[in-house]
Specification:
The chain is of the alpha+beta class. Helices cover about 25% and strands about 30% of the residues. It has one domain: Alpha-Beta Complex (Aldehyde Oxidoreductase, domain 3), CATH 3.90.1170.40. The strands form 2 sheets. A 4-stranded mixed sheet has the order 1-4-6-2, with helices on both faces. Strands 5-3-7-8 form a 4-stranded antiparallel sheet. Helix 2 runs antiparallel to helix 3. The radius of gyration is 16 Å and the shape is globular. The protein starts with 11 loop residues before the first strand and ends in a 14-residue tail after the last strand.
């Protein structure tokens, strides 16, 4: 199991983990004296998806050597859009993720809530289309790597 620790320097924390995600540590790590807003998105594994009411297992697979560089580029793009961002975290889990456990964390701090909310939303939405991580669902009667093909896009420059 990979042990995910916050960095000792810098304002970005990006990682993959094959175990439970450090939600509380991420929430605490983004706090800075000059930032009055912290937004944490915690994406958890759920027991259903479109047309499937009985999902009992999720599994995530990643093209590992490309994930952290893309997380870093995504954070750089967020900072270009919201220059007042203090710290930002992007951590995704790989392997088996039981229902109700965290699959992804995006945490952002900024002086004011608007930038923090918008940057966190941008982070999770852009991650879904630009980072090579795939989800497999298992349900009573089958399993699938997704309902539709997933095409990885480039992070759009501003």
């Amino acid at each position: 199991m990979w042990f995910v620790m916050p960095p000792l320097e810098g304002d970005s924390w990006t990682a993959l983990s094959d175990g439970p995600l450090p939600i509380e540590a991420a929430s605490s790590w983004v706090v800075r004296p000059d930032c009055g807003a912290v937004v944490v998105f915690n994406g958890t594994a759920r027991d259903h998806s479109t047309g499937r009411d009985d999902v009992d297992r999720l599994e995530f697979e990643a093209y590992e050597e490309h994930v952290v560089p893309r997380f870093d580029a995504l954070i750089e793009a967020a900072r270009a859009k919201w220059p007042d961002i203090g710290r930002m975290v992007m951590i995704h889990r790989v392997g088996h993720v039981p229902v109700t456990e965290s699959a992804v964390i995006v945490a952002v701090s900024s002086p004011h809530r608007g930038s923090a909310f918008e940057a966190a939303r941008f982070g999770i939405d852009t991650l879904k289309s630009t980072v090579p991580i795939w989800k497999k669902e298992r349900w009573d009667g089958g399993e699938s790597w997704g309902l539709e093909p997933q095409h990885i896009e480039e992070i759009a420059p501003e």
